[in-house]
Amino acid sequence: MKEDNRKIKIVIGDEIDMSEEVLEVFDDPNKAYDKPIRTIYIKPELLPSLLSGRKLHLMLRIRDKDICMTDLAVTLKRKLAAVSRDVRELEGHGIITVEKRGRHRYPKLSGTIEVLI
Fold first, then answer.
1. Is 64 exposed, middle or buried (0-12, 13-18, 19+ CB in 10 A)?
2. What is the CA radius of gyration of the chain?
3. Which domains does the chain have, with CATH numbers?
4. What is the full DSSP assignment across 95-109?
């Protein structure tokens, strides 16, 4: 697997947790360099949907492989429409990106993912 220096931090929390991190960077802008490329704040009640078992399996498959959506659906033994829906949701949160090559779409992790509770 190729080394990826980009990091995504997923924080299970609320607006207060987000405000504290933003204020920390405002107080000392140099601390921004210690932060991951993207921080995603998720309310606890949304966690089961965003990081469901099926979405985690999907992320594990694309972590090490260059695989198009159709082949990914076959590998996961799921319908293409369901995989596409999950990919769109994860892409909307910035957890993955999708590269188009001709008629095919290739999902990729946006970086190394760290989950904090």
1. exposed
2. 16
3. 7-116 (1.10.10.10)
4. SEEEEEETTEEEEEE
Block residue for tokens 């999708």: 98
6: left (phi over 0), alpha (psi -120 to 50) or beta: beta
- State the Cα–Cα distance between residues 35 and 17, nearest whole angstrom: 14
Per-residue pLDDT tens for 65-78? 899 999 999 999 99
* Beta pairing partners, 10: 40, 115
d(CA 115, CA 93): 14
pTM metric for this prediction:
0.72
